[in-house]
């Protein structure tokens, strides 16, 4: 259809349409445009009416004339009450009712008919202005009063459903648009003459977008400026403006007025540019449609995130509307007013005159960004945080200064035995507030503020700008908003929702994230809460038939989640989910803190799972705390999960058969990956309150938080779509501030994090820990170790070199890791070769790892120390010594002249020289080493006879049968020797010490256990081992026994990093030994924090054993590097590869 | 302060509880590896009736390494120089970790009883000793009277 033709049809329709609201007619004209602005367009007529009459709206006397309104509505059936009101108002003050009605109706039709021709503006020659792209006209100083005209597409919708009335409109800004003449004009357009904005096609959406949602055609083709007077097209607007106008112009939510301000006072030829001022207004409809739109968009969001299906027309329409709004706000420079002024202090009156170039630039930028919006479908990307981002996030979000000022709540003695620290009392206040248990909080006054007036972070606050529209400049007839003294409005540009009231998030969520740093006593705080509110006190009331509380005012705008008790409600039980190693610790802490003997806790693990439901819901006194492990939950879940349907079968006995009163998950970052079975299983547990305890809510991805939010069911963020749009996507687009802003506003109400370094109101540290000293003790290889190490080093170096030369280093990454692993094992103990590092899980796939370690014969010769002593020689020595010590008992009474121990204990520690003198193994070895180092002859300390270190003997204890045998010192690892030495020294100095020995190789723990027990008599040292192989019961026994102080014994806990690196509280020990370095320094720090935490009273001393000139030294360098570069690697995959290669190179420098 | 090996504690205790006749050794309050030592001059020696003050220090590597012993009192002896340093094999090459503080001090005492000018440390004294032993002994007595009160 030619544009002219279109115009004619429209004009012809106009008068009729308005009278009869003939739906058929619209189909001719802009018929298809309902696709575009559907529910919005239908209000067009209301808009028009109210535009005409709005000035009078709200006048009091009208409200009395209900009858008159009715009569008017009889005549004009589709009129709303308020419209009728307006008409009446305008009809004047005649005393005769009939006359008034007649007048009103007359006005109605008259105004409709005459509208297009009212344009009789005073005109004035515009001063010449350089034409260019888009320009702000806030500063336009146009003098002549021109009656502003309302420009409308009269061919638009008639109402179908709702008929909101435009009660007012308000100026939000204007722009200067450089338009392009599409028709020649006979004479110059008059300055200030009103132009109409017309959509030439309403079927445009189909033309504008491909099926995949990409834009294919220019919107500018479909938006025209029309001279009102001449009824003919004048020109078109640039694309960026068209993109605003096209989706919005037919809506009565917004109002646009275009005024001719410059055409160089010449007649226009096709292609000439002229400048138009475009005034933009928001109308009341925008704010009224709010709730209706909400529904739309919510469903839309849900759908569109379900992985980029082809966007429906409806979605396209909403999207183009949304983008248009964003673009519009940008063009008119309507900036957000920050809730907290600090965030955006730049807000003020927009600059009066904006430099043209700049404006052009920003304009094109906007178009660009809009384009990327349109084109880029949301895609899943790595969004790994780098360490600085993490820091700033923690800083801005999680360390809440305000937590200092929380009132303190002291739990009642009847329920909680222990004394809480000050910040723990504050934490309890916060937790109780989060649970809405306000009556238990000490300082009730502060309770109102719990969720504060948290503005929904998706919403932005805008200040209404001063009305600088053409119309208001020229005359004062339209002063529609004068009655509004509201300064601000709120808009959610993401969804296109508007509101005058502040959109407050009121979350119904009971629970939150207690993210206090490690060692601040999250467990204790949580127990204080559990014991303060052991069961759902509201439950009995809930059973009352009326159930009114469900509908209370707390319903959030974004919808709330209401948990119906579909499952039996274990309203007296809190489920605590913990890593296995913490099971008994939780139980112990519970026993320690509970003062009411009737309250008990139970461990739900392994064993008998049947009857849980009965226990919890039918029993009179169910356990108030049920402790279980992640593994148990996942196991039960896996059992219930129907593999075929992917749905859970209903459970009748286990954890999933009831709804708990409360769930607490400890070390909650366990579920940070929402795709793991563990995470999924936990998400499916039901409870009315949900808590997460974690010291590290984010490990390295922003999305780590999502899992936590999902677990808590924090609406709406728990919908993956919301999270993606407002957090992940902006983050991927490097829009960090926006992402972090959203994250911090999501988290602020639900998270409490304090760090050890924080100070309380009085400036005191939250926790004063005794000092900690970490020493690196360098150990040198003995001869055989050195040979072995060199052998493996050569192999590894060759492999790396090969990889570097060929450039496929990373392909061989895991092979190289195996090589590295071998080197690390040799550093610890040669017996480790062939065993697995439990932390290098990515290696398990590698075949090389399981292959037996083959060692060249040459090497094995070199590493076997006694090869130069013949058996006969040894036998001779042994028989000689046997004659010297004919009695076994003599062997148990030997004295070491070096350390003056008497007797040498255990007897296996005895090392005899050829000359028959006895020493402790360590003493004589140390002596030999010392002498060799000084290049001095090794002589027997007792008789000065030369000692051959290959001809040493020891005593074998074979079921209490003592026997002198050859001493094979080569099997001892230097590291263990150093450890034993250090332990001996410690034991010498003070018996009754407790020490923790960490290693990442659990087989190394076995070796250490063997060797340490051979070095210490059981009367002076006790060895405990804690690793993943222990059962739950054994674990708690080990920990309990280790913690029991025994002044006569040195207690040594051999701890596997993986099993014991987190959560355990080992403050009874003040010394730790790290047997092998870890790649990640933070893991080591975490392990050290097992002993350096609250409750530690002694100075903490940590010794890290590092083999000299070995890969371990280089690992230290990599640790340093990680500390400085940030442990969490950048999102950039290339960068990560580069770093890996660099690290491998560092290892083999 | 670095921790003290059990052996040192044991030795110290024994030195106090079961002292060697003519020898005292007291660990310093601030440093248990530093001992203030006195040795009485052996009878029938030029150092008879003298009480000599010494200092003894146990290095970190003790007992792998010998203790450091030095005379504080001025003494006229061919194996002890003006700074009080002692030339004694068990303090040097013949040290063995089986030796102890008490054995070292006994050796020092024995050295006073039998000076060995053929392995001198103080060369001038040793020369005097060899040239005119009586004169040297008289001088040693005189010094003892003068300084070792």
From TrEMBL, chain A:
The processes (GO biological process) annotated in the record are:
DNA repair
Q: Which PROSITE patterns match?
A: HELICASE_ATP_BIND_1 (PS51192), HELICASE_CTER (PS51194), ZF_RING_1 (PS00518), ZF_RING_2 (PS50089)
Where the record annotates domain Helicase ATP-binding, the positions are 503-715
What are the protein's UniProt keywords?
ATP-binding, DNA damage, DNA repair, Helicase, Hydrolase, Metal-binding, Nucleotide-binding, Nucleus, Zinc, Zinc-finger
Q: Which GO terms describe its cellular component?
A: nucleus
Enumerate the residue ranges of region (Disordered): 1-38
- An example Pfam family from this entry, by short name, is zf-C3HC4
State where composition is biased (Basic and acidic residues).
10-22
Q: What residue stretches are annotated with the Helicase C-terminal domain? A: 978-1149
Kindly list the GO molecular function terms attached to this UniProt entry. ATP binding; ATP-dependent activity, acting on DNA; helicase activity; hydrolase activity, acting on acid anhydrides, in phosphorus-containing anhydrides; nucleic acid binding; zinc ion binding
Q: Which family does it belong to?
A: Belongs to the SNF2/RAD54 helicase family.
Protein name, please?
DNA repair protein RAD5
Automatic annotation (TrEMBL), chain B:
* Active site feature: 87 (glycyl thioester intermediate)
Q: Which InterPro entries match?
A: UBC (IPR000608), UBQ-conjugating_AS (IPR023313), UBQ-conjugating_enzyme/RWD (IPR016135)
Residues of the UBC core domain? 3-149
One Pfam family cited in the UniProt record for this chain: UQ_con
**Protein keywords:** ATP-binding, Nucleotide-binding, Transferase, Ubl conjugation pathway
Q: Does the keyword Nucleotide-binding apply?
A: yes
What's the protein called, per UniProt? E2 ubiquitin-conjugating enzyme
Family to which this protein belongs: Belongs to the ubiquitin-conjugating enzyme family.
This enzyme's EC code(s): 2.3.2.23
Any GO MF annotation of the entry:
ubiquitin conjugating enzyme activity
